[in-house]
Design brief:
Largest sheet: 7 strands, mixed
Radius of gyration: 24 Å
Strand content: 5-15%
Length: about 210
């Protein structure tokens, strides 16, 4: 082998090793970025919540927001979004005339993001976002409630909704239905599906039989 060939071979080998190192650095960087997202956006809200009640943040899609607003069309009064995330449903509801519009979210980073979006939309003084546990929020003056929560949470939330919401209030649940309640309207397909439920004083009469499905 000629000296020039040896130099070229060593150069190529170094380049290959450098490429592998770069790939490793990229992988490590991606892992750190994912961990940063978890630590900043998800973990702070989970620390105060029992494991079975933890709900990872997944922002509502444009279609989901549209369906929520469609099922609340023509209604008035206070709207509350339980687990409001980045606040997009609260902001959209306010623009559609549901006022006051209030969001409750445990994660401080998401609350801050929601307030930023409201400020950018010129609605900072018109909508409210609170860092508060939804189980400690009073719903007695709420006429419209939006929830995008996991089934394990919805099964427990039914009792709070029935006990606190006034007669005539409406609950709209996205992605998953309330497990034992019979909806008055359903809109959308798949993950974009939302269910509407009306509150009446004769609570059990509006519940579905165990064998029926929404």
């Amino acid at each position: 082998m000629e000296p020039d060939d040896t130099v070229e071979a060593l150069t190529e080998l170094r380049e290959r090793r450098l490429g592998a190192l770069e790939l490793l650095q990229v992988a490590a960087g991606s892992g750190l970025a994912a961990y940063a997202v978890w630590a900043l956006l998800l973990q702070p809200g989970f620390r105060r919540v029992p494991l079975r009640l933890q709900v990872p943040y997944v922002g509502a899609s444009v279609r989901q927001v549209e369906h929520v607003l469609s099922l609340l069309r023509g209604r008035s009064g206070k709207l509350v979004d339980l687990g409001s995330g980045d606040g997009r449903i609260v902001l959209a509801a306010h623009r559609c005339g549901l006022r006051p519009a209030v969001g409750y979210e445990l994660n401080p980073w998401l609350v801050g993001l929601a307030r930023l979006y409201a400020w950018r939309a010129g609605c900072a003084g018109s909508v409210c976002y609170h860092r508060e546990d939804l189980w400690k929020v009073s719903l007695r003056d709420c006429h419209n409630v939006s929830v995008f929560l996991a089934p394990s949470v919805l099964s427990l939330l039914e009792g709070k909704l029935q006990a606190e919401l006034p007669d005539g209030a409406r609950v709209v649940s996205g992605r998953y239905p309330l497990p034992t309640w019979k909806p008055v309207a359903v809109l959308g397909e798949g993950l974009d599906r939302v269910w509407a439920y009306d509150i009446h004083t004769d609570g059990p009469a509006r519940q579905a039989a165990p064998t029926s499905s929404p």
